[in-house]
Design a protein that fits this description.
2 copies of one chain form a homodimer. By secondary structure, chain A is an alpha/beta fold. Chain A is flat. The two termini of chain A are 36 Å apart. In chain A, the strands form 6 sheets. In chain A, strands 9-8-11-10-12-13-14 form a 7-stranded mixed beta sheet, sandwiched between helices. In chain A, helix 7 packs parallel to helix 8, helix 19 crosses helix 20 (551-564) and helix 22 packs across helix 24 (648-664). In chain A, helix 8 links the parallel strand 12 (218-223) and strand 13. The first copy, chain A, has 24 helices and 30 strands. At the A-B interface, helix 6, helix 11, helix 12, helix 17 and helix 21 of A face helix 6, helix 11, helix 12, helix 17 and helix 21 of B.
């Protein structure tokens, strides 16, 4: 029977007292290292080593067991052999401990019996209002509480400084690696937690806490899989609404799960694409390298969100400036322009022909050279279009002095800046100078460019907290009894029609006379299609006959379909339609992230280049319109080479309304394809449809 | 009147004696730094400071001028103010100096008068058989001669070690930066030259020398522009035939020159694409970051060319292993498989379920953990499919010992290896250990992956020295009188027909009765097209009327064209053709690299996604066939979703033959478009054609 937790996540990360169960002085052992790190970190609450065989450890008196502590500690670290863990968890729960951090591994990550033991520990903890972190974790750190409660040998050698980056990770080894490398890169942390198997407290619990943590300015995550995707998203939204950027590295992004799908949509909507779509819409910056994740986070932590994208580049080497400009252009990074007043001031030190951005400080007017050691940076930082500075430093005489002058100008101008030192040790002290002045300095141009690119990508994120509104005129959510597991094409069309997606005019017929009648009513030419719930690829099975011009051709087609298609339930006679563009719309109900809508260009060529977008449902017309504009073939919709502009507003409205169907039907609709949807100058029409539901 | 040079490039880079003109003891000055570096580098030839005002410098006796040296030195460095340079060059030439290295700037790179003075110096030098390096250069280095003949302060602090990488650069500042950073990254150089303005000796001269230099195993270039592209290519071919990889960083790759073009081909064949095509076919690895250039070069220098692409990853962190596998998959890098005998040996230390590649050494069987500190590497290196190792190291206990054991296994297995240390200073001595064992160790996974990716890309380069053979049945090269500046469509078709590219059946007519006659001869439906040399975009100008079914429709089309097209010279009546695929073929005569052939998919959709390839002419059918396979839409040619395979062999043959036309006509043909070329199951036909020549 669960009882309310004794401590909140915030109280656990800011404990008053800590017991380390399994403490020793043998630094080859986890418990010893946790204790050692905690003591050396300077934590000023109570630290109690628990060990029945020793009277003191590292000069601190021990207790024989948790039961011997009068005031139960807020946090108990458990670092004992696996077989003893459940009993100790039980003792802690019984004795009123707030949270156990279980370092020991060998539970749910190993096998099913391990998972059962893990679950029993969680049940025991919950029944006592105790929380668990881990098992199979490295521990945690909270620099603002001087708390280095983890087993990594890296803690002892990492210089200590509190900062604004929170890092929640599913990899213990990476926690320490990321922390140590980060500090080396002058990126400073507030909190870090190794969540281990997430038996109780999980990713989302910590993210939710960080939204309110005043010491945390930016949140970084290393994720292997989601325990509860919806809680994760809710927590992310709280962080974003608190103005805190969220950056995530995810592994397993290139694995293709073996999924059985019957729709084109489902085969296109790979797990990685779903994740990308979710991250894009939730404003999570997906970062593919763990070092760059922290470097970018530090840039956010120091400089906040970007307000514009103009970058000023200054270098003493023409070669470095040229390479930088090339790499920026490739990444779509924009060189800032200089307004007239700034330009006039720069022309005092540069010849007009030598002045530009990148600024090549090697091309300064000779007489001013020795006086303007910052290459004119003090002037350029005043340019309103300059939102960040990129300063690649190469070898040369007086590089240290140049770096110092540039650093001072950057600090005076209060603009975000990335220094890159391109040489090795021949820096004439520049690294030390920049470090002393607390400026960010990278070792490669690539790293500097990546940080700027990722920082600036925040300009394109959707605004936090804005959720789509349900459009007028949608039907009330239908119930699951509406459609069978494999609805027919016509049944699917009726469903989407109720959401305002018009289909081609058609009749379902079961005899040739009815077919003739339908064709007469529609007018020739017509299309004849097989109705069969079990046919996935109709065209390839010869189950679609296009452009039938008269009764004779219709009859021939009828016979052909009846001969070749098994389990035929009838035929559709439909009007021939054409359009200026052929799109595909689809719904996928993702196991982790729920209903998603897919849209893009259809037809063979478009499929070969895979020109589609995915967005979580519901999706606003505005967001759909923006994503349509990112399709490679978008000019076919907007008009190109004398072709007319098509009805893009209608397309966006249709996709948005389809996304509401995805939401309304999420309990029973698994997949849906509308393919093709033909788009005209005015109007758009669904020509073919298919769906799969969970009702059976 | 030029006379033969006194010294070869090899003799200049291995001089017996050096004079430094403008030497002093003031290290703020170029001449002083060159002299200081040369002395400190340990060069064991003669070093003569030249300075009329001092009797000795850095303890070496000076001479007042070059004329006071009895045996003229092989190399004279000139580092005096600009206005004195021409006179000193003249003195050197007259006194029998072998080569002047002109450090001083302010000549051709500044303005036209500067360029004239520069040329006069070259003329003077050539008339005396003297060579020039520079002006506006940093100097050179030849580690195998202990020669650090350059002005960079970086020389004094860079640890000295001779190696196999040659680096020729157009950026002086980058020479020293690259050298210093390289040595920091454990990449070691044979030779480096800053070519400056390349007034006399240029890029190609040094590359040509390096082909034969026994100390150089790999050639790296930083290039801003080519002085003589054909000499450059000839020199590259010599290097490649000598088995030496060539890696190049090029700046200015994203600049779009303002080129007036009349053909679709020319607008698609941007300078960067031309360069990419040339590099691909000549086997030059184009690298976009200068640090990665040298890191990759060192990998080639140590390990030679790859013989297979299987990579084995070993890490003590499951998180690092997972991220590595993701990044590898994204880059198309392949994880090696383990053969049965190797797998059986690995299963002694791993549970079968925990064994795989990446090898997670954290998942070793518990009892073997302490004994197998290399994670099983000593076994994995014996796997024949393992061609390289990638070893990401994270924090943890005994990381130093693990690194040592892994290093020993790698060395014993003699396989190429990339270590990556992901943490900062918490490496437990691993960096020092790897360094001591002379293994390559990178600071980020990205850098390690990039090196492997670039190294392995050499597997896909065309074989050196294999030039295409002229196919049988081509006509003798036509002369420039054949076609006017803007030939008509029909004239172009006749030209390409002579190279075996069949065009649609058509007649050129100037009156309606002839048009009727032509249509009767071809059979309806027909196409009517305007003949006008000045019309570039025929379809958009209403100058093409398709699908005319009878005389009446032909007449209407005729009238419409006569009303709307100015400067009409007649009309073409052509058969209606269709094909399964629509391609574009083209020729571009590039100003730098000569005739190129372009080919790819045509039509609106294909143009929007820009699905074309470029290759220097002549091009073999084999190479064209390989590039066709890289087109996004290639499945349309090879057959997909029940579509037939088309005549790919014929397509490749047509493009190869067109490339011979490009070669034969290179003196007068500027651009040519065949667009569309319709491809069928059997056969292919040119439907429209356009060209521009230089004759006028």
């Amino acid at each position: 029977m669960p009882v309310p937790p004794r401590l909140s996540v915030g109280e656990i990360l800011n404990p008053r007292s800590i017991a380390v169960i399994g403490a020793s002085e043998d630094l080859r052992k986890f418990g010893s290292r946790v204790l050692n790190n905690t003591i050396r970190g300077g934590f000023d609450g109570e630290i109690i080593p628990v060990n029945p065989k020793r009277s003191q450890i590292f000069g601190r008196p021990t207790v024989a067991s948790i039961r011997h502590i009068d005031n139960p500690p807020d946090v108990a670290v458990i670092a004992v052999p696996r077989d003893y863990v459940p009993t100790i968890v039980e003792e802690c729960a019984g004795h009123g401990v707030g949270c156990c951090v279980v370092i020991t591994a060998g539970f749910g990550e190993i096998d099913a019996p391990g998972a059962r033991i893990e679950q029993a520990m969680v049940d025991c903890a919950k029944s006592a209002g105790m929380r668990l972190i881990g098992p199979n974790c490295l521990g945690l750190l909270n620099t603002h509480a001087k708390l280095l409660l983890n087993s990594s040998p890296a803690m002892a050698v990492t210089p200590f400084r509190a900062g604004g980056i929170a890092h929640i990770t599913q990899s213990g080894a990476l926690l320490a690696t990321v922390y140590n490398r980060g500090v080396d890169d002058h990126a400073y942390f507030s909190t870090s937690v190794s969540v281990g198997n997430q038996a109780d407290l999980e990713l989302a619990d910590f993210i939710d806490y960080l939204a309110d943590d005043p010491n945390t300015r930016v949140i970084t995550l290393y994720v292997e899989g989601f325990r509860n995707p919806q809680r994760f998203i809710d927590a992310i939204r709280r962080c974003r609404e608190a103005g805190k950027p969220v950056l995530m590295a995810k592994s397993g992004t290139t694995e293709q799960g073996a999924r059985v799908t019957r729709s084109h949509t489902a085969s296109l909507a790979t797990p990685h694409r779903v994740l990308e779509a979710v991250c894009r819409e939730e404003g999570i910056l997906l970062v593919d390298d763990i070092r760059g994740l922290i470097q970018t986070a530090e840039f956010f932590s120091r400089y906040g969100q970007p307000t514009g994208d103009g970058i000023c580049v200054v270098s003493g080497s023409g070669g470095a400036a040229a390479l930088t400009a090339d790499r920026m252009a490739e990444r779509g990074l924009r060189l800032a322009g200089f307004s007239e007043p700034i330009r006039r001031r720069l022309e005092v030190i540069y010849e007009p022909t030598q002045l530009g951005n990148p600024m090549d400080s090697g091309a300064l007017k000779e007489k001013s050279f020795t006086k303007i050691d910052d290459g004119g940076l003090s002037i350029a930082v005043e340019e309103p279009d300059v939102h960040a500075l990129l300063i690649p430093i190469t070898t040369g005489p007086s590089v240290g002095n140049t770096a110092r002058c540039m650093a001072d100008s950057v600090i005076a101008g209060a603009k975000p800046a990335v220094f890159v030192i391109m040489q090795g040790n021949a820096d004439d002290g520049a690294r030390d100078i920049l470090n002393e002045k607390d400026l960010l300095c990278f070792e490669t141009l690539e790293e500097g460019l990546r940080v700027l690119e990722r920082w600036l990508s925040a300009l394109r994120l959707p605004t936090a907290g804005k959720r789509p509104e349900r459009p007028d005129g949608l039907p009330a959510p239908a119930n699951s009894a509406l459609l069978p597991t494999h609805p027919t094409e016509h049944e699917v069309k009726v469903l989407v029609d109720s959401y305002g997606l018009t289909s081609v005019k058609e009749f379902v017929v079961t005899d040739i006379d009815a077919a003739y009648g339908a064709a007469d009513a529609l007018g020739y030419p017509v299309v004849l299609k097989a109705v069969s719930r079990h046919l996935v690829h109709k065209s390839e099975a010869g189950a679609v006959k296009l452009g039938l011009n008269n009764r004779e051709e219709l009859h021939t087609a009828w016979q052909s379909i009846h001969q070749s298609v098994p389990e035929l339930e009838g035929c559709i006679v439909a009007a021939m339609e054409d359009g200026e563009a052929e799109l595909i719309f689809g719904i996928l109900n993702d196991k982790e992230f729920g209903p998603m809508v897919l849209f893009g260009f259809g037809g063979l060529m478009a499929e070969l280049i895979d020109d589609v977008k995915l967005i979580p449902a519901p999706a606003s017309e505005r967001r759909v319109r923006a994503l349509l504009g990112e399709l490679s073939l978008f000019p076919i919709l907007s008009g190109v080479r004398g072709r007319p502009a098509l009805d893009i507003d209608l397309v966006a409205a249709m996709i948005s309304r389809l996304s509401w169907l995805a939401v309304d039907a999420k309990d029973w609709l698994l997949e849906l394809d509308l393919n093709p949807v033909l788009i005209k100058q005015s109007g758009a029409i669904v020509v073919d449809a298919r769906a799969r539901t969970s009702t059976c």
